[in-house]
Amino acid sequence: MLKRYQISGSKIVESIDEKSPILVFIAPNESEQRHLIDDYKIDEHTLHSAIDPDELAWLEFEPNHLALIFKRPQNYSGKDQLLFKSSTTGLFLFADRLIIVLLDDIPLFENKIFAKIHSLTDITLKLIYSSIFHFLKHLKVVNMISDELEQKINKSMENRYLISLFTLQKSLVYYLDAINSNSVLVEKLKINTKRIEFSQEQLELLEDITVENNQCYKQAEIYSNVLASLMDARASIVSNNLNILIKVLNIITISIMVPTLIVSIFSMNVRLPIEDVPHAFWIILGLSAISMLSVLFIWKRKKL
């Protein structure tokens, strides 16, 4: 699917003009891929890398354009079962055109950082900047989910909460890899500032991107380390909860077995000492109750 945009009044607006300077290809089909390869001279391997979610971020100078790929968080859906993944976006910057290639349809230019746009290079940098904020939002969600799971683990013995924590930890590993990959891309952009001909304002933005990306990586690293260090403790809590339940069930079983034994003795088909006593039934019932209360009293006194 192809969407066209143009810069109007320092903002990016959707356009129907075929000569629009900003082209967004969403999951390009074979025909669109061939159009990009033949008409815009985009390398076929580079194009396939742009729609490969496992591809790392990188930068490459082509004869007539700049090709770069950066990582961004993949849209989360319920079927992912708390597994947060990253995806890729390909940017192909020409002198008068910017081509964006991505796998899924997402709102690219709704972030407030796209309020002041003066050139296609601005859009390139701010798309990378936007992906960093997207990562930060996902990290906040992961942290919130982690806190909720920890509270449930403290009260539950089900393994599914532990499995969910393992899944979140796996997600953070994916994010750390993606954010680190973006940092390599940013460093390459800083090394080639003269070749790309960044303005002073764009250089300042690039510096902001570097700082924000480093902070994002540190935050993801902290969350990952916290989850990893607490997994054993959470597993111990589940085991402890199970032990407590088993202990309670054992006490209940013993409390029932003792009065059952007394009733069974007096139910034997032989002559018993109190069988001629008028209130024998109530005496036996009382002995059963006393035995059960005695077991509960001993259990409470000994704090078993």
What report would you give on this structure?
There is one protein chain. It is rod-shaped, with a radius of gyration of 33 Å. It has two domains: about 240 residues, Beta Polymerase, domain 2; about 60 residues, Methane Monooxygenase Hydroxylase, Chain G, domain 1 (Up-down Bundle), CATH 1.20.58. The model has no long low-confidence stretch (mean pLDDT about 85). The chain has seven helices and seven strands, in the order βββααββββααααα. With about 300 residues, it is α+β, with helices and mostly antiparallel strands. It has a seven-stranded mixed β-sheet, sandwiched between helices.
Spell out the key features of this protein.
single chain; 7 strands; Methane Monooxygenase Hydroxylase, Chain G, domain 1; 7-stranded mixed beta sheet; alpha+beta; Beta Polymerase, domain 2; 2 domains
Summarize the SSE layout with pairings.
Blueprint: E1 2-8, E2 11-15, E3 22-26, H1 30-39, H2 44-50, E4 58-61, E5 66-73, E6 86-93, E7 98-102, H3 120-155, H4 159-191, H5 193-196, H6 200-266, H7 280-302
Parallel strand pairs: 3-7
Antiparallel strand pairs: 1-2, 1-3, 4-5, 5-6, 6-7
Helix pairs in contact: 3-4, 3-6, 4-6, 6-7
In short:
The protein has helices at residues 30-39, 44-50, 120-155, 159-191, 193-196, 200-266, 280-302, and strands at 2-8, 11-15, 22-26, 58-61, 66-73, 86-93, 98-102. With 304 residues, the protein is of the alpha+beta class. The protein is rod-shaped.
**β content, as a range?**
5-15%
- The outline comes out as rod-shaped
**Count of strand segments:** 7
CATH topology (fold) name of the largest domain:
Beta Polymerase, domain 2
The secondary-structure element order is: EEEHHEEEEHHHHH
The helical percent reads 55-70%
CATH superfamily of the largest domain: CorA soluble domain-like
Across the major sheet, the strand order is: 2-1-3-7-6-5-4
Name of the CATH first level of the largest domain: Alpha Beta
Low-confidence stretches: none
Return the domain count.
2
Q: How would you sum up the major sheet? A: 7 strands, mixed
